[in-house]
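Need residues for this backbone.
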């Protein structure tokens, strides 16, 4: 089997010259480049990627840890990462965890084994204290805010966005506001949402908080729970943790001939296509930009903290 030394011997050049040609290094004369490329073609030589990566000192591969796919928030961040990876000629590996701590650690070990140049964490299962030792082996960037100096982050001020969302509904005259979340109180995002609600409204009736909402069907079920059961006081507004969930709530409300926004105001999140189609107001965290910036920080091996601004998009659902 032909190897890089054979190519160098036949072409009459050094192994390092062949390596530079394989890596498209600019410091090779055009004559030598053409000779090496001609021999490579004649010998039908395919370079061993691991060997090339070892010579180059990088894999041009970035891993993206996500808890699960088919979720618009994580899909948007991943979309942003891929946007920039194409521009910079990097490959992206999606590392799904379902919030398994063990699986997450397996993926982080890929840095130690030099299979990846860096890892972007969209949402994590392990503590930062567990994750930080892996920064010795490559760049790790978070899509949530962290004060740890070893970790760069591209993030939104989620707590402030939740406060602004609830205050927006209150300013529109709503005091009976329900909300949905993805995970329960083990999630930092959920804890922040609950804290923001209490800051704006002073307290939280148990029946106004519905966790485990991820998709359209969950939103429809949330509507059933809020209006089809013995809730003492029906909400006049709902803040959904995604426009797909908001779309499900909208579908339920319309099935009961409720008028939007007179009978029920709906505020979604992430400015997704279904929200645009249904004309739902939405809190846009600009997650595509978060993903793009996270990629830039990763390839730059930067530990900076970059805040991405959010905005509330007003439409006819409120």
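Answer:
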């Amino acid at each position: 089997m032909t190897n890089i030394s054979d190519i160098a011997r036949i072409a009459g050049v050094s192994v390092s010259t062949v390596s530079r040609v394989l890596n498209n290094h600019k410091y090779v004369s055009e004559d030598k480049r053409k000779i090496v490329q001609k021999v490579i073609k004649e010998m039908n030589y395919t370079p061993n990627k691991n060997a090339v990566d070892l010579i180059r000192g990088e894999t041009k591969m970035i891993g993206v840890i996500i808890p699960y796919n088919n979720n618009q928030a994580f899909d948007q961040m991943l979309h942003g990462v891929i946007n920039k990876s194409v521009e910079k000629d990097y490959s992206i590996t999606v590392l799904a965890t379902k919030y398994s701590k063990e699986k997450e650690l397996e993926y982080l070990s890929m840095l130690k084994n030099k299979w990846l140049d860096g890892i972007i964490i969209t949402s994590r299962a392990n503590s930062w204290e567990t994750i930080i030792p892996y920064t010795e082996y490559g760049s790790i960037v978070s899509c949530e805010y962290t004060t740890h100096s070893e970790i760069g982050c591209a993030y939104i001020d989620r707590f402030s966005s939740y406060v602004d969302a609830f205050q927006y509904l209150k300013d529109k005259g709503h005091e009976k506001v329900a909300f949905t979340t993805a995970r329960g109180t083990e999630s930092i995002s959920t804890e922040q949402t609950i804290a923001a609600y209490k800051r704006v409204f002073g307290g939280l009736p148990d029946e106004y908080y519905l966790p485990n909402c991820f998709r359209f069907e969950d939103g429809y079920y949330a509507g059933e729970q809020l209006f089809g059961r013995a809730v003492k006081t029906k909400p006049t507004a709902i803040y959904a943790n995604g426009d797909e969930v908001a779309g499900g709530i909208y579908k339920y409300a319309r099935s009961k001939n409720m008028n939007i926004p007179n009978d029920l105001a709906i505020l979604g999140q992430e400015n997704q296509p279904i929200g645009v189609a249904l004309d739902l107001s939405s809190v846009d965290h600009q997650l595509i930009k978060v993903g793009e910036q996270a990629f830039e920080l990763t390839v730059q091996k930067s530990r900076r903290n970059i805040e991405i601004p959010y905005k509330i998009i007003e439409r006819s659902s409120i």
